[in-house]
Write a structure and sequence with these properties.
Elements (H helix, E strand, L loop, with lengths): L3 E10 L2 E10 L2 E6 L9 E12 L1 E6 L12 H10 L2 E6 L10 H14 L3 E4 L10 H7 L4 E5 L11 H14 L2 E5 L3 H10 L8 H5 L2 H16 L6 E4 L5 H14 L21 H6 L24 E5 L1 H5 L5 H4 L12 H13 L4 E2 L8 H4 L16 H10 L5 H15 L18 E4 L5 E2 L18 E2 L4 E4 L2 E4 L36 H4 L1
Parallel strand pairs: 1-4, 5-6, 6-7, 8-9, 9-10, 10-11, 11-12
Antiparallel strand pairs: 1-2, 2-3, 4-13, 13-16, 14-15, 16-17
């Protein structure tokens, strides 16, 4: 029997915003129709004419737990994610201890199981631990990385020889290698040249566009020369030069790219908020006629090269360095406004495949120091979807493209489609974001939920969700988190061996109540 009915919402179906209802059973969507006639439901949710889209998948977060929970924790980070419309995260390995062996993996899994309010995957780290990669894959690592080609938070950067060996091992496993592409030699040279420079944009000049371009070129060459090349995913790509290299490599190798912009084939999706146009569109379903489509067949395993961009490399630039100062310091750094504009063009064209936050929080007192001494990283998991929805409202990209890069594509890149993620359709998890397109608000740190209590997007426009559902349960009701710690489910990677080792008692979630509050 169905558990939940969501009525009075609009869905993007066949490239048109269409009035519909969503029926949910056991946490999964079982039908989408113009109207259902059902009784004995546990819950009926009135969407009040909101638009429903798949909740976001943020494939790049650093929740700092374990080891640095004063910056963030699995509870505060996942609450922040849910309040921003994210229902799934992939957490990266540079914590204390780092996720570079069984002990580090299980410690993070223990904390996440106890605290997270949304579903999660855990990435395996790559350092001088090549003999541990198979072990991490067997434990259920979602992918490997980010693999640091240059110094960054956590000190997990590796040299080119180790990178080559790691990529070959990851290729043999059939896994994804997530790459942090910056050239350390150029970084070190520029640090020496700019030793006494204390200007607001010095971090961007120490790690210029060329720094990323060189690293991407090297990584592509190293991977291609390996015995079994890995599937590559470039994290937080920030320069048009790097995007061009990635696209050229795809073309040279004649790689299939299932993550291109599908809306290009049929025209842009209808612009949100245009009620009159919606009424005049043809093809709306008659009463009780199903408007759902069958689940798409999972793509075969093939060699892939994909990339993501962050909101800070789309919506911020070096023009903001004077305003943000150390609060705008991250790796890779802010780029000039022309680069940011070209990155948005690449996102729209399909050359960039996904958007992820690279949520990397530090407390204000850590940032309030000299530029070169300040830690790199900015929070962003709660503002990712609101910033993009506001960009849709401003016609910077289509709603359809926005959905592709925040749910469908991340699910396919990281094999989350296999576990029911990434689509708002029958058979998939009912991870749903409801929003009203005209409710544009000003982003303010005081209204956000990250423990770090600041945002680089202060004062910018955002459209926040009025509701976020995870597997059919309302996690965020527009005002507060309404599920308990531990609601989130571990999404094991395809290599997970079912040996029962993940079924141990993880302890009482309430034992950390004082620390979390």
């Amino acid at each position: 029997m169905p558990d939940v009915l969501i009525k009075n919402v609009r869905l993007l179906l066949d490239h048109v915003l269409t009035p519909a209802e969503i029926l949910i059973e056991d946490g999964r969507v079982i039908g989408i129709s113009k109207e259902f006639r059902v009784s004995n439901l546990n819950e009926t949710i009135d969407g009040k004419n909101a638009i429903a889209i798949p909740a976001g998948i943020d494939a790049h977060v650093h929740f700092r737990d374990p080891g640095m929970t004063y910056k963030e924790s699995w509870y505060t980070g996942s609450c922040s994610a849910a309040a921003g419309g994210i229902a799934t995260v992939l957490e990266h390995p540079n914590t204390l201890p780092p996720v570079i062996d069984k002990s580090g993996f299980n410690e993070k899994l223990k904390q996440a199981r106890k605290k997270s309010v949304i579903d999660f995957g855990i990435n395996g780290g790559v350092t001088n631990n090549l003999e541990k990669l198979s072990e991490l894959w067997d434990l259920g690592a979602a992918c490997f990385g980010e693999i640091f080609m240059a110094e960054s938070t956590g000190g997990l950067n590796i040299d080119e020889k180790t990178l080559g060996s790691a990529l070959s091992k990851i290729g043999k496993l059939g896994a994804v290698a997530a790459i942090h592409a910056e050239d350390d030699a150029l970084r070190l040279l520029n640090e020496a040249l700019l030793l006494h420079d204390q200007s607001d944009d010095v971090h961007s000049r120490i790690r210029p566009n060329e720094c990323e371009e060189i690293a991407v070129r090297k990584c592509l060459a190293i991977n291609a020369s390996g015995a079994v090349p890995a599937n590559l995913h470039f994290c937080h790509i920030s320069t048009p030069e790097a995007v061009s290299l990635i696209e050229a490599e795809r073309t040279k190798l004649k790689l299939q790219n299932p993550f291109k912009n599908e809306s290009e084939k049929t025209g842009n999706a209808e612009k949100i908020g245009n009620t009159e146009n919606e009424k005049n569109k043809k093809g709306s379903s008659s009463k009780n006629e199903s408007v759902s489509t069958s689940s798409q067949v999972s793509l075969p395993t093939l060699r892939r090269i994909t990339c993501e961009v962050t909101p800070h490399h789309l919506f911020l630039s070096t023009k903001d360095c004077g305003r943000l100062k150390t609060f705008g310091k991250m790796n890779p750094p802010l780029r000039d406004s022309k680069s940011a504009s070209l990155m948005m063009n690449a996102l729209n064209s399909g050359m960039i495949n996904a958007v992820a936050s690279d949520h990397a929080p530090h407390r204000s007192y850590e940032k309030e120091t000299a530029m070169k001494a300040a830690p790199s990283g900015v929070p962003g998991v709660e503002t990712l979807m609101p910033l993009l929805l506001a960009a849709v409202r401003k016609n910077m990209l289509s709603l359809e493209r926005m959905v592709e890069v925040t749910s469908r594509n991340p699910a396919r890149i990281f094999d989350l489609e296999r576990v029911g993620k990434g689509f708002l359709k029958s058979g998939f998890d009912a991870d749903i974001l409801l929003f009203h397109p005209k409710e544009i608000t000003t982003i303010k740190a005081k209204n956000l939920h990250s423990r770090c209590e600041w945002t680089p997007y202060e004062g910018m426009d955002g459209i926040f969700p009025v509701m976020t559902l995870s597997r059919g349960d309302v996690v965020w009701d527009g005002q507060q988190i309404i599920v308990k710690k531990g609601h989130g489910k571990f999404l094991a990677g395809a290599g997970k061996k079912e040996d029962g080792s993940d079924l141990e008692d993880w302890g009482d979630a309430e034992e950390d109540e004082e620390e979390e509050e």
